Amino acid sequence: MYEERTIEIGILSLHGVHADQYDHAVAELVPAMQQLRDAGKIRLLGITESFASDPGHTMLAQAVHDHTWDVAMVGFNMLNQSAREWVLAETSRRGTGVLCMLAVRDALSRPEKLREPIEELVREGLIDPELLNLQYPLDFVAEAAESLPDAAYRFCRAEPGIHVVLSGTGNMGHLEQNIASIPRPPLPESMRARLIELFARVDTVSGQ
């Protein structure tokens, strides 16, 4: 016999919202989401940026000032830490939950892949080439990390204002490594400070 059950969704999120879609989302979609919340169907309203096409957080920098959102999913990693100023400062002030996506993507998956975006950032004048080894970018993280992805996850996990670091993979070995990395201690403060200084002016890449 069929038994009717009430299912509550924890977070209903608008995913990959672009800056030019935000006003439409608030005017047309949010009222329906709020009705579902008021009816007990969902608990929290969330919004996610399109980090690959909006690495400067144009949309989220606006959204976090609204009282609409309980949770925000933001792109943040060692290469692009600009969300610290444009998103996390405000979400921390408001108590908004933050999910970190793209902590590790192609550029942070292996050192040889990293050289291309690093060289581009140097050409754009956004990184001082004297601060790192262009042949082996970020080789200094090996002093305290199992691997580049290990350092990347631990860097994001220790960022104030980030509550959850997302990890996605279709490889079981990678999944086990990711699970092991995230609860490890933060990187040494001197290393973290060096990474912040190195990428302080970068808001043009997502790490893909």
Can you tell me about this structure?
This protein is α/β, with parallel strands linked by helices and 208 residues long. The chain has a single domain (9-198), classed as NADP-dependent oxidoreductase domain (TIM Barrel), CATH 3.20.20. It contains seven helices and five strands. A five-stranded parallel β-sheet has the order 1-2-3-4-5. Helix 1 links the parallel strand 1 and strand 2. The longest helix has 17 residues, at 22-38. It is globular and about 60 Å long. The N and C termini lie far apart (50 Å). The mean pLDDT is 93.
Helix-strand blueprint:
Blueprint: E1 9-17, H1 22-38, E2 42-49, H2 58-63, E3 71-75, H3 83-94, E4 97-101, H4 111-123, H5 148-157, E5 164-165, H6 172-181, H7 189-198
Parallel strand pairs: 1-2, 2-3, 3-4, 4-5
Helix pairs in contact: 5-6
Please sum up the structure shown.
With 208 residues, the chain is α/β, with parallel strands linked by helices. Helix content is 38%, strand content 14%. A 5-stranded parallel β-sheet has the order 1-2-3-4-5.
Write down the CATH topology: TIM Barrel
**How is the biggest beta sheet arranged?**
5 strands, parallel
Spans of at least 5 consecutive residues with low confidence: none
Query: How many H/I helical runs?
Result: 7
Summary keywords:
208 residues, alpha/beta, TIM Barrel, five-stranded parallel β-sheet, 7 helices, globular
